[in-house]
Design brief:
single chain, 285 residues, alpha/beta, Rossmann fold, 2 domains, ten-stranded mixed beta sheet, 11 helices, 41% helix, 21% strand, globular
Length: 285
């Protein structure tokens, strides 16, 4: 990974995610882009915000640039003994979060987007849940960092698989190995199953999965982890709550429009309440 993108709305949640991402960037020797997306309140009267005259556009841009420059200065002043210091640039653009982040991530060839998780509040109800929107729209690896996550280097990474899309999951599991190697982290291929309805082939499939990844990447620190629980989300919740892993990796596969609107994917549900960073990988198909 060469470039990480950090969207910010200047909240405590996004600042925490930026600091987490910056420490990660130093460890994997990647540069950083900060970005702020904003919509003129006059353009979204339904949000409950007070409308601004369009003449105040320049003033609003200037105020946002001052704030994002402060974040840049803050990051550059962090001194934790690491030799590598990421290059930091920033952009301040009008548009929705999804549009601005997608545009910058594509144009600047960003390898990873790092964002805070959604914090419920009246001001965001009609504008939308930014975590869910980013998961659906950016088509880039997305690292969601909750406010409760400790700022530390992840040494134990769990890659979740249900074995329903084995070829896709195999390639995506292999794709995180370079990052894991830079972090000197272990990878645990993790499957949640109900022991009462267990597929007798699961142990063999897990062994084949781990062996394939290890052989293809020549990375020796890939292991199997099978969790007994009748609900995937409950199983991963327990895994995260017990402190057994520092980072959970899930693949997002969009459902139908109806299902996505009323239920959301398992990945989106985890993003809503997870207490450790969640790395969301877009499906290859």
């Amino acid at each position: 990974m060469k470039t990480l993108l950090f969207p910010t709305d200047f909240s405590a949640t996004s600042m925490h995610a930026i600091e987490y991402g910056y420490h990660l960037a130093k460890q994997i020797k990647a540069d950083v882009i900060l970005c702020n997306a904003f919509i003129l309140p006059a353009e979204v009267p339904q949000s409950g915000l007070v409308g601004l005259p369009i003449d105040d556009y320049d003033k609003l841009v200037e105020e946002n640039e001052v704030e994002i420059a402060k974040i840049k200065t803050h990051l550059e002043c962090i001194n934790d003994g690491e030799v590598f210091k990421p290059s930091i640039t920033f952009f301040n653009e009008v548009g929705s979060v999804a549009d601005v982040v997608s545009h910058i991530a594509t144009e600047k060839k960003c390898d990873l987007v790092v964002s805070g998780t959604h914090q419920p509040g009246w001001g965001t109800i009609l504008i939308g849940n930014h975590s869910k929107i980013l998961i659906d729209c950016i088509h880039k690896p997305l690292l969601l960092v909750p406010l409760s996550a400790k700022i530390k280097i992840p040494r134990r990474i769990a890659f979740a698989t249900d074995f329903k899309h084995p070829e896709d999951d195999l390639e995506l599991a292999c794709s995180i190995v370079p990052m894991a190697a830079s972090l000197e982290a272990e990878i645990y291929i993790t499957h949640v199953y109900n022991i009462k309805h267990v597929d007798q082939n699961i142990p063999d499939r897990m062994a084949q999965f781990v062996n394939y990844c290890a052989n293809k990447t020549q990375y020796p620190f890939i292991y199997a982890s099978i969790i007994n629980n009748d609900q995937p989300i409950s199983g991963f919740d327990k895994l995260c709550a017990d402190g057994d892993v520092d980072l959970l990796v899930m693949v997002h596969r969009p459902h139908s429009l109806f299902s996505a609107l009323f239920n959301g994917s398992c990945t989106q549900k985890m993003a809503a309440h997870i207490n450790i960073p969640l790395l969301v990988l877009p499906s290859l198909k």
